[in-house]
Amino acid sequence: MIEYKAYAVTNIGNVRENNEDNFFCNGIYKQNVALPEYTFEDFGESEDLSVFAVFDGMGGIDCGETASLLASEKLCDYFVEAAVNWEVFSGKEAIYEINKSLCKEMEKRSTTMGSTAVLLTFQEGEACIANVGDSRAYLYRAESLRQISVDHTEQNSLLELQKELGLTESIAMPGMKDMLTQHLGISEEEFLLEPFVSEKIKIQLEDTFLLCSDGLSGTLSDEIIQELLNRKEEETIKERAFLLLQKALQAGGKDNITFILVEF
Q: What does pTM read for this prediction?
């Protein structure tokens, strides 16, 4: 049995007028979408069902934060039901249920909205990642940072195709990097939603998981993130979370910044 500490942050950044991101930590999320910043700290054990998620909302006026809030609310319902009934939690099925709920809401409002989603689930000492969109999940282990999630973007799809074709030089396509190929808010009639789901990861002592919106990963390089996470002996999880946020803000903070650190 391994104990964990978690610290979650969502921040409006330096440029945006509202915060369209949200996070989910075992039933806790930002319920007041008007808040520019919200933090939460959590403690628990790896044997218990725990679910963490980051949602990066998209849409017109008020739609982005509404989408990420609805996603958090639906995930909460799915999480509570699984916990009460002692069921195995499926991140993939949770994404499907959230998507259905979001599509119904769009139909009712006669509007469009969407959100990325990256989920970290652990139970009985094993972790699993599921995601749609470009919000990321990383595993920091043995002083090395590794991305577990998959970026569902046009640029990444092109890079994968180039690998399959055996091309050694990547072809840059301006403007493609941020175009999402998967996200919440896609109806079954429109497109097939295909979440990425990782293999089960056996949790080890000293592991750290990082979930984040592209407000963090698009601003700080993996090398900088790894360097900050490497300061575990000198700083608490809260202090390292503060450093990540400050680095992202100092680097421009052009987008909302949301992330969750979970360390064992």
A: 0.92
Contact 118, 149 (CB under 8 A): yes
Choose among 182, 181, 179, 254: nearest CA to 216. 254
Kindly state the helix (H) or strand (E) to which residue 44 belongs, with its residue range.
Answer: strand 37-45
What tokens appear for 67 in the block?
């989408």
Residues 6+ apart with CB under 8 A from 91: 51, 119, 121, 128, 129, 130, 195, 197
Given a contact cutoff of 8 angstroms between Cβ atoms, the answer to whether 203 and 248 are in contact is no
| Phi, psi angles (nearest 5°) of residue 86 | 55, 45
* pLDDT per position as a tens digit, 211-255: 999 999 999 999 999 999 998 777 899 999 999 999 999 999 999
Domain span at 235: 3-263
Identify the CA nearest to 220 among candidates 243, 186, 190, 202.
Answer: 243
Q: Both tokens of residue 111? A: 């509007």
User: The domain spanning residue 204 has which CATH number?
Assistant: 3.60.40.10
Report percent pLDDT > 90 for the chain.
Answer: 80
**In the chain, how many domains are there?**
1
